């Protein structure tokens, strides 16, 4: 079987299907990741609470969903919940499953990152009269974010690949489109090689981009426009002082 | 000279897990004066200092900062803890600079997020303070790119940014090499010259002798002896003070005077 055989399929006929699938995959990834990051942050903060009553439910959640396969969660939300009168669309069920599953992992990463910020940081901010909210937003969170980045980035790429499991509920993402094309053309090998290549084309630039981002942050490059402006103004003020 | 009292503490008691580490300490820091607390490690010096800005909560004390009651009996009576802390600057032994921010941003942050000063003003003040501690050229460096002495000087600038009534120093040179120690002490000496009110915990006896108006020797949670620096450090009356001062001085062949000479004071 030669490489040229890949072109025995009239890919032009399926171009728009593949594009739709690709877009759907990206939509699931964004919805799943944003939701999981927010829920994961809430869970992490709960687990760092002084109150046992707040810590316990978050710990139970994390242990529960870390130890159930994602596929089981997908089936439960899409096929299981309707028996209780909860009918979710394919997109809702798919995104919700990703959120539930990945929030458990992200909460572990976030918890370790927040707990890892040195106690002296909290004290220094407190001693400067900063409120609890400002201390968290300005001092603890930015430092925790830096140490959480590598783990979080791995999870993001993992989540993107896991959207392919949604083929089991025909979610119209890339894998589902591949399955449709394969069943029409009877050329499973060619189709799935192309599908795999498309996943690679999505994931590789994403993970490389995230690595670049990590390196920038570690090197102390200010990425927020407001910080860039602030530091530029500082340099101008300093230069004035030298010539004055 | 003014008679105003920046910090007044009366009968402060503090315990951890039922063990009293401060057993009724009374202390006054008049405005524009410098009071040094000396003593063995574990004697309660740092805990006492941390009670002043309520990073530690006393079990019992009467405490006033700039004439305002902040603690009475077993209750905190300070209504606005954030404002109290803005009036009491603190410099830590381990600097505790914010590692994700540059030097200038470290000095700006609390101005903007605690005192709600606008950005332009905060920036100007930060640059001015960095000049004052001799670090304008390091304004856009991150803490990890700076030496210990430079970090501590940025920390001093950061503590000064909110125009505090009093500055607390918790062994500011204990984690520094001799050269950095000299840098930091030079800045502190300048502040003393400018009339800054300071309460410092230190092991640098020669420095304490030079800049302080009053020296307090604390041991096992109590004030053992206090007075003008020459009296306490050169002519201590109590046995425990004598032992402490001589232990320190014996590190240097010629005693305290030699120590001062060696350290360039």
Provide the residue-averaged pLDDT of chain B: 90
Low-confidence stretches of chain B: none
Sketch the topology of chain B as an H/E string, one letter per element: EEEHEEEHEHHHEHEHEEHHH
Strand content of chain B: 25-35%
Q: Roughly how much helix do the residues of chain A carry, as a percent range? A: over 70%
Q: Span from first to last CA of chain A?
A: 77 Å
Instruction: Tell the overall outline of chain B.
Output: globular
Structural class of chain A: mainly alpha
Number of helices of chain A: 9
Helical segment tally of chain B?
Answer: 10
Strand count of chain A? 0
Radius of gyration of chain A: 23 Å
Question: Could you give a quick summary of the protein structure above?
Answer:
The complex is a heterodimer of chains A (244) and B (265). With 244 residues, chain A is mainly α. Helix content of chain A is 78%, strand content 0%.
Provide structural commentary.
The complex is a heterodimer of chains A (244) and B (265). Chain A is an all-alpha fold. Chain A is 78% helix and 0% strand. Chain A is built from nine helices and no strands. Chain A has helices spanning 11-47, 52-66, 70-80, 90-115, 119-127, 132-162, 174-185, 188-218, 225-243. In chain A, helix 3 crosses helix 4. The longest helix of chain A has 37 residues, at 11-47. Chain A is flat and about 70 Å long. The model of chain A has no long low-confidence stretch (mean pLDDT 92). By secondary structure, chain B is α/β, with parallel strands linked by helices. Chain B has helices at residues 45-52, 81-87, 103-113, 119-132, 148-160, 178-193, 205-211, 229-234, 239-249, 255-262; strands spanning 5-16, 19-30, 34-38, 60-65, 68-72, 75-76, 88-91, 166-170, 198-201, 214-219, 222-227. In chain B, the strands form two sheets. Chain B has a six-stranded mixed sheet, with helices on both faces. In chain B, strands 2-1-4-5-6 form a five-stranded antiparallel sheet, covered by helices on one side. Chain A binds chain B through residues 118, 120-121, 123-131, 134, 138-139, 142-143, 146, 220, 227, 230-231, 233-235, 237-238, 241, and chain B through 53, 55, 81-86, 88-90, 92, 94, 96-100, 102, 104-105, 108-110, 113-115, 119-120, 123-124, 126-127, 131, 136-137, 139-140, 142, 158-159, 162.
